[in-house]
Amino acid sequence: MKGLFVAAMLLASPVAAQENPLQNSATWQDLKESVLGLASDVPQDIGVLDMEAPIRAHEAAIVPIRLTQPHGAPAVEAVTLVIDENPAPVAAEYTFGPAMMPLDFEFRVRVDSYSDVRAIANVGNGSQVMAGRFVKASGGCSAPAGKDMAAVRETMGQMRWRAGQEDGRQIGTLMIRHPNFSGLQRDQLTLLTIPAHFIDRLDVRQGEDLLFALQAGISISEDPVFRFAYQPNGQPIRVHVEDTDGNVWDQEFAAGG
Asked: Which residues does the UniProt record annotate as the domain Ig-like SoxY (predicted)?
């Protein structure tokens, strides 16, 4: 499980000041209406929601994304994550509970070519706001898997949880072993295409109270890691995971990690 902790530390590393604003490509002009049903542009307001992402990704298959809000910002109820140039642009749909506000949420994605990465957030009363960055990366969706198939079968579904205080807030880190095969990768031994097989449902709660839920596509990274600030209620952390092959995993962790 050492690799999961290394991944978590990468997520926790400071991100340099952002110099990669959205490019608002022709692809987005098509996507916003045909895929997302948006009749007009969604405003950007870093006073409500901001995104951190690397200008040039070190590894296209594990690009760190961080969504943040300043104190006093309206609560984010849901976020649709879109990676414009990925084969399946809608990468994830998140729902957040009140204990996650103000939002400080990190995860990793695959980026297949130079692309805008954008988060369209619902902030109540039908209002939406967008945050995003332009990321230079290529080949993330077809990058070779990080382990062989035997290791995949042995470790798939294993989870780790830890929690602690950082800068006056409770920070939780959830790590899940899963290959999240995109359907665009090849087995390095047989050279045959590996069928798509990924986590498509994730539900994280403390007791009965929702922290966050995820509906995902092929763009969430292998062995996903989620790092987030939350208001603890003293109840155990309960995690429910489903994947596209019908596997289901449930695990409960002590509140303190």
From this structure: 44-141
